[in-house]
Amino acid sequence: MAEAGGDDGRCVRLSADRAQALLADVDTLLFDCDGVLWRGETAVPGAPEALTALRARGKRLGFVTNNSSKTREAYAEKLKRLGFGGPAGPGAGLEVFGTAYCAALYLRQRLEGGGVPAKAYVLGSPALAAELEAVGIASVGVGPEPLQGAGPGDWLAEPLEPGVGAVVVGFDPHFSYAKLTKAVRYLQQPGCLLVGTNMDNRLPLEGGSYIAGTGCLVRAVEMAAQRQAEIIGKPSRFIFDCVAKEFGLNPDRTVMVGDRLDTDILLGVTCGLKTILTLTGVSSLEDVKGNQQSDCSSRNKMVPDFYVDSIADLIPALED
Amino acid sequence: MAACERLDGGALRELLARTQGVLFDCDGVLWNGERAVPGAPELLERLGRGGKAALFVSNNSRRSVAELAARFARLGFRGVAAEQLFSSALCAARLLSQRLPRPCPPGAVFVLGGDGLRGELRAAGLRLAGEEPGPVRAVLVGYDEHFSFAKLSEACAHLRDPDCLLVATDVDPWHPLSDGRTTPGTGSLTAAVETASGRRAVVVGKPSTYMFECITEHFGVDPARTLMVGDRLETDILFGHRCGLTTVLTLTGVSRLDQAQAYLAAGQLDLVPHYYVDSIADLIAGLAD
């Protein structure tokens, strides 16, 4: 395939030589998961071998995902199961930074010192609730919520849980008008925070179709409550700051590897990391070109330093 | 230039003397919940006696026109005919009838909304998805108490066809209840559908001017001699300006005077009413006996 590098010298194909030079100057690689390491339940061919080789070369690995439906442990289990290795036992999950875990960290910071046990109304998964519980924040609201009674008057009269200090919006297949109404009621209480795990508008499925992403639910709550949510996941800095804090990173010696220009690559650029786009997921070279040629400066940012067809392309640079 | 002046005295009399017709929003203007605004029924009666036309323009997509007419009667407003009522449900039906093939193919319209909206669509000859099979050619987002993730994803599936229309009855973010609590509006549901599909909805309700087009198909309206009276700056007043009407904010509903004044100070003149009144009953004093 021909080189894509634009006039600005970015988005250069990461050949084996360039990869060797790059990796010599890098201590840590951060990977998105869906569309990079695996698609659904199937590892991208060669990806497990690439990561095994990186670990063997002493590189530290981190996994940065906007998925809020799994705990760190569950992600670690999937990484192991699909051949990507990682620590076992109580250390399992320490390489993983998903938005459920990072949302819990954010809320622990913000709700600390409130004098009462912290509580959150959660539009999201049991995993999100579990990560919150793990840092001492109780959650209410996970699961379906049927409309009670005949009309708005009735369901607005439903009692609220006392002491809810935050509404957290994650991926919620039980999202409904009733839950949206309840979220807005909590948000109208003084001091109640609004947090969204991420703004991905779609979750791609196999075969090119998609379902609605968490971003849709966050936008619905923001609109009904007339407030902006604090966003945890890529491209927000917060998720990177969680990694940096636990890993003690040097951004100059860290690479972000992802498949989405508007989340993974933008995060990398914002945080001063080197960036590699893999073509095994959402974004294409066409998308990169469109961003390079755009008049809009925020689109110009979403261009990676390098691209690979898949992360298996790193393997030749790692062979002795 | 709209300057948000109190409408009373000589200015009120002069304005009403040259007014031929008045468009009224309903919720927060004529009534709050189940209570008519005191003096509102009398105002409508006096307008009629004075030979001035009254038409009603509501973003509320829960009610069919028949239900809206029944509400007028129940709350003490006499002599209001169905022809005077323009709801976003009625106008959404009109828009879809215009844009879809005629006769409407089976199962063509996927509706996120309740019985009132569905009834209005069927009355216009539209055929709804879920009632019969057929490719969906339009997704209509209305006020939907039964909105769910599953319905959102189904809407998205239909919208993958770039020829499938996306229409919203209105984009109101929330609605007030009479005791000051709020309920999420169609705008919040539309935001979810737009975000997933990457498409912008065609909006039927205010501040889009589409309902004014529906009105002028049936009634001769001289914008220079027509008032728009509403309670919400971002819908009613903006709509009035876009249609070239003289705008009057009434303070019995959503928007507050200080909000209008803030828009004025910020130079956002499309959101500033020409005039305001505490309630539409204040207009009675401007009508000749």
TrEMBL record, chain A:
Annotated residues for binding of substrate: 234
Single GO MF annotation: protein tyrosine phosphatase activity
Keyword terms of this UniProt record: Carbohydrate metabolism, Hydrolase, Magnesium, Metal-binding
Single GO biological process annotation from the record: glycerophospholipid metabolic process
Note describing how the cofactor binds: Divalent metal ions. Mg(2+) is the most effective.
Gene3D superfamilies: HAD superfamily/HAD-like
Keyword flag Ion transport: no
Active site: 32 (nucleophile), 34 (proton donor)
Binding site for Mg(2+): 32, 34, 259
Known cofactor(s): Mg(2+)
PANTHER family the record matches: 4-NITROPHENYLPHOSPHATASE-RELATED, GLYCEROL-3-PHOSPHATE PHOSPHATASE
Protein name as catalogued: Glycerol-3-phosphate phosphatase
Gene: PGP
UniProtKB/TrEMBL annotation, chain B:
The keyword Metal-binding appears for this protein: yes
Keywords noted in UniProt: Cell membrane, Cell projection, Cytoplasm, Cytoskeleton, Hydrolase, Magnesium, Membrane, Metal-binding, Pyridoxal phosphate
Function: Functions as a pyridoxal phosphate (PLP) phosphatase, which also catalyzes the dephosphorylation of pyridoxine 5'-phosphate (PNP) and pyridoxamine 5'-phosphate (PMP), with order of substrate preference PLP > PNP > PMP and therefore plays a role in vitamin B6 metabolism. Also functions as a protein serine phosphatase that specifically dephosphorylates 'Ser-3' in proteins of the actin-depolymerizing factor (ADF)/cofilin family like CFL1 and DSTN. Thereby, regulates cofilin-dependent actin cytoskeleton reorganization, being required for normal progress through mitosis and normal cytokinesis.
Catalytic residues (positions): 25, 27
Protein name listed in UniProt: Chronophin
Xref: InterPro entries: HAD-like_sf (IPR036412), HAD-SF_hydro_IIA (IPR006357), HAD_sf (IPR023214), PGP_euk (IPR006349)
Known catalytic reactions: O-phospho-L-seryl-[protein] + H2O = L-seryl-[protein] + phosphate; pyridoxal 5'-phosphate + H2O = pyridoxal + phosphate; pyridoxine 5'-phosphate + H2O = pyridoxine + phosphate; pyridoxamine + phosphate = pyridoxamine 5'-phosphate + H2O
GO cellular component: actin cytoskeleton; cell-cell junction; cleavage furrow; contractile ring; cytosol; glutamatergic synapse; lamellipodium membrane; midbody
Known partners and oligomeric status: Homodimer.
Gene3D superfamilies linked to this entry: HAD superfamily/HAD-like
Binding-site residues for Mg(2+), renumbered to this chain: 25, 27, 231
Binding site residues for substrate: 58-60, 175, 206
GO molecular function term, any single one: protein serine/threonine phosphatase activity
Gene: PDXP
Family: Belongs to the HAD-like hydrolase superfamily.
One GO BP annotation of this record: cellular response to ATP
Subcellular localization: Cell projection, Lamellipodium membrane; Cell projection, Ruffle membrane; Cytoplasm, Cytoskeleton; Cytoplasm, Cytosol
EC nos: 3.1.3.16, 3.1.3.74
Coiled coil: none
Cofactor: Mg(2+)
UniProt remark on cofactor binding: Divalent metal ions. Mg(2+) is the most effective.
